[in-house]
Every structure is written in C-alpha cells, then in structure tokens.
Amino acid sequence: MDGRLRKAVSIRRRTRQKGMVMIVMAAASIAIIGVLGVAVDMGRIFIAKNETQTYCDAGALAAALKLDGTTTGINNAIAAVSGTGDAWNLGTTAVPAPTIEFATSGAGPWLANPAPATGYAHVRVTANVSVPTYFAPILTGSTSMTVQSRGMAAQVVQTSLSVGLAPYTAVASDIASPTYGLTVGQEYDIQWPASNSHGFIRPLCTGDQAPARQAAINSVLNVWGSQTNGYWGSNSNAVIRAEVLDLIQQQPATIGQT
C-alpha cells in the first residue's frame, strides 16, 4: 500500500513540473517574439532614417549651389531640392513635401521665402516620413512612427585658404558670356604670360592664338601688365612661388561674384 502511494505522489509531482515548464516556455516565447518583432520595426526605422537623411543632405547641397543673393537664386534652390529625385521606403516612395528654409547664418533665423534674398547663403532641408510598425504596437500601442531628418549646407566665404587648393585657374576673358569666353574642348593658358606694350611676352596656347579669340586677347591685355602673371589675386613672384609650391591661395570671394 505504501509503495502504491509513493508512486502516485511521484506521478503527480512530475505532472506539475511538466505544466510549469510549459508555462515558462510559453511566456519566454511571447517575450522572444516581441523582442524580434521590435527589432524588425527598429530596423525599418533606421533604414528610413538613412534614406531620408541622404535625401536632405543631397537636397541641401544642391540648393546651396544655386544661391546667388537673388530671389531667382532662392527659386532655383527650391527647384534643385525637388529635382534630387531621392525616395525612401527602399526607393519606392517619394519623400513628401520637404521643408526648405534659408538663412544668412547657420544660427538662423530660417525663412522659407526671404525677400530680399541678399546675403542668404545657408539652406536647410527637413523631411518627415511616417514609418508603419507591425510589432511595436504590442508595447507602444502606436501603429506608426514619425522619422525626421534634416540637412544643412551653405556657401562659405573663405578669406584664407591654405593647403589643398590648386593655386591657379584659367582667366575668364569674357565675363559677360555664359561660359566666360571659354569653349569646351579648347586649350587655354592656365597661366597667362606677362605683357608689355607690344603684347604678351611669351606665346599663347594654340587655342588662345586663334583669330576668333582676338577680342578676348585684347580684353585680357587691357587689364594686364608686366608684373601680372595670370595667377588669381597675385602679382608678386614670391607669392606666386608660394602658391605653386606650398599650395597657398588667398583671395576673398563673395556670393554671385563672376
């Protein structure tokens, strides 16, 4: 009799233990599924953030290149943002109605349509997208999350440029021309020679010697002299040597300067 009783007690104990394991496994499974689900949603959110941030950065840079201190420049900057063509949601959805603002400094204030536009060299692009979530609502109760991205760019006037900038450039012979008097595929002097009363001391490149460019040559000679050697902002041989060998160039620039 005692043996049968001990056997029955042992069976009931093992049954209770099996039931407890099933309860623990069920609770653990719910927690694991919840964590995996949140991880999936967070992954989608991070992807959306990366996509929209890329859009804002590209849009701000494209817009900043269009600013010239005029209302037309502002309009061109806004069009440049719209023309970037970037999308989010794995490239399937256009970024909706980005906010485009302008300022005279990085600290603001930021305006959508500054008038007059003089001095507005900073642009800020902001985008907001709603990312649907599928597992996070179990914890948060919300079926979507708003992701905001913002990019800023500006035209910066640098009066002291040091290492890394090429110290010379081709001289524009006709600033009224859309191409500054230059033709694609044509050869030009990267350093125009010094001149005297008879013209340039040394021969020009073949392209600059063309009869069709005589007017351009004359326009350069009008402002050239015996101490001018074609380097941007420099006439001194010592300064030019430093510009070439030390990669140093110093010359102020302003928005809209030709």
Task: Report on the architecture of this protein.
There is one protein chain. The chain has 258 residues and is α+β, with helices and mostly antiparallel strands. Helix content is 38%, strand content 14%. It has helices at residues 2-64, 71-82, 137-140, 214-223, 237-245, and strands at residues 87-88, 93-94, 99-103, 122-132, 144-154, 195-196, 199-200. A 3-stranded antiparallel sheet has the order 3-4-5, with helices on one face. A two-stranded antiparallel ribbon has the order 1-2. A two-stranded antiparallel sheet has the order 6-7. β6 (195-196) and β7 (199-200) form a beta hairpin. It starts with a helix and ends in a 13-residue tail after the last helix. 21% of the residues are buried. The model is unreliable at 161-168 (pLDDT under 50).
